[in-house]
Automatic annotation (TrEMBL):
GO terms for molecular function: glutamate dehydrogenase (NAD+) activity; nucleotide binding. SMART domains: ELFV_dehydrog. The active site is at K114. This is Glutamate dehydrogenase. Substrate binds at K78, K102, S359. GO terms for biological process: L-glutamate catabolic process. NAD(+) binds at T198, N229. It comes from Belliella buryatensis.
């Protein structure tokens, strides 16, 4: 299953501007000075390289590689590398800034970065992808580094590519440097608990929000859209904590059972059925999979793709709480109506930050030359997620804003204060 952090902002013509809209709202509430505003709105570093690769047919093809460091004021930059045909600088800049806010919200000592190579990995052989990844790494040798910029997988890349990156970087440095990248295979220094980390963070955020809303988990119902890494782990862990999961879905459709779906059974079914829920008998298939979002449940977890809650369906949403497992599942216009309806939405940069938190633990373990148990990883990430939720909740009360804007406020405030103390302009 894919390991992506974070996703694209596909609906916007200019993703950077779309990200800046929410940034602007938070900056205004905070009364951010114009000087700091101008610093934060521009990425610290943008690197574009040409990567000539010998393809399997013997011809040389040139690919464009990008790496953007939005900010490294809080620590080394952190962010994925995507291999996709539509990678472009504005998108990478927006995603790098998004990583700055995400890391700051959960208070881990990282700045934000993002990278990409414009290519279509689906049409490339394993050998071509490996040569491209190695060439990209060599070209970014001065950018990457455990104390400078730590990449991770994103769309179109995974543990295999991270292993190649680590190997190429290590060869160039003349020693094994596994802390230069996260999302590695376990045997190369990947962390236990990373697979379930994002779903686990969704569960912690949901329980914390339910406590504030006085919803008893043992009497609560929940619908989860998406049954991949994030959705299935969130479903399982929420079920374990008493919630009745009445609907789940994946690309094959949505499945509803008012008596509750047995999530262990659904996962076992999916795993034995080519990764899909198609034909699952533990629930009834809904005619329209989008109906899942409109069910009369207490908690709704969109954990599939972006832009599923929009002005076209937001009026029909009945959940009291939305916990964003996916990146960008709610469009900015729908945001306003969610707020009017009094629904609490725990935003993506908070709710799905469990993944980057355990990536941070991977780096910490690599630097210590030590391996933590899954229990230690889970305990520490649960605490970080709960503290971050409380912090954002307090900000939402203090500034009288929804949780989404409060999350941006917490993040921007932290980065801005650090700039003020460090100074040096
Ligand atoms: P995944 O590929 O493992 O699973 C995606 C799931 O969504 C699959 O079950 C797929 O069938 C389903 N799906 C796709 N389109 C759908 C649709 N239109 N309706 C219903 N279901 C649909 O991906 P994932 O890692 O679980 O990521 C899901 C979301 O969470 C993405 O937005 C991703 O960026 C975000 N996210 C993931 C992580 C992570 O650690 N995996 C971290 C942060 C954010």
């Amino acid at each position: 299953m894919a390991y992506i952090e974070p996703a694209p902002i596909k609906d916007a013509e200019n993703p950077l501007e779309s990200m800046m809209e929410r940034f602007n709202l938070a900056a205004e509430k905070l009364g951010l000075s114009e000087e700091v505003y101008n610093v934060l709105k521009n990425p610290a570093k943008q690197v574009i390289v040409s990567l000539p690769i010998t393809m399997d047919n013997g011809k040389i093809q040139v690919f464009e590689g990008i790496r953007v460091i939005h900010s490294n004021i809080l620590g080394p930059a952190k962010g994925g590398i995507r291999f996709a045909p539509d990678v472009h600088l504005d998108e990478v800049k927006a995603l790098a800034a998004w990583m700055t806010w995400k890391c700051a919200v959960v208070d881990i000592p990282y700045g934000g970065g993002k990278g990409g190579v414009r290519c279509n990995p689906r049409e490339m052989s394993k050998g071509e992808i490996e040569r491209l990844m190695r060439a990209y790494t060599l070209a970014m040798l001065d950018v990457f580094g455990p104390d400078k910029d730590i990449p991770a997988p994103d769309m179109g890349t995974g543990p295999r590519e991270m292993a190649w990156l680590m190997d190429e970087y290590s060869k160039a440095k003349g020693m094994t440097v596994n802390s230069v990248v996260t999302g590695k295979p376990l045997v190369l220094g990947g962390s236990l608990g990373r697979t379930e980390a994002t779903g686990r963070g969704v569960m912690v955020s949901a329980l914390a929000a339910m406590q504030k809303l006085k919803i008893n988990p043992f009497q609560a119902t929940c619908a989860v859209q998406g049954f991949g890494n994030v959705g299935s782990w969130a479903s399982l862990l929420l079920e374990e904590r008493g919630l009745k999961i009445v609907a789940i879905s994946d690309i094959s459709g949505a499945y509803h059972n008012v008596n509750g779906i047995n999530i262990q059974e659904a996962i076992a079914y999916r795993d034995g059925n080519n990764g899909t829920l198609e034909g699952f008998k533990g629930a009834e298939k809904l005619n329209d999979p989008m109906e899942l979002l409109e069910l009369d449940v207490d908690v709704l977890v969109p954990a599939a793709v972006e832009d599923v809650i929009t002005i076209h369906n937001v009026d029909r949403i009945k959940a009291k709480l939305i916990v964003e497992g996916a990146n960008g599942p709610t469009s900015a216009k729908a945001d306003a109506i969610i707020n009017e309806k009094g629904i609490m939405a725990v935003p993506d940069i908070l709710a799905n930050a469990g993944g980057v938190t355990v990536s941070y633990f991977e780096w910490v373990q690599n630097r210590l030359g030590y391996k933590w148990t899954a229990e230690r990883v889970n305990r520490r990430s649960d605490r970080i997620m709960k503290d971050a939720f409380d912090h954002v909740y307090e900000a939402s009360i203090k500034y009288d804003v929804p949780m989404r804007i409060a999350a941006y406020i917490v993040a921007i405030d932290k980065v801005a204060k650090t700039y003020t103390f460090r100074g040096g302009f």
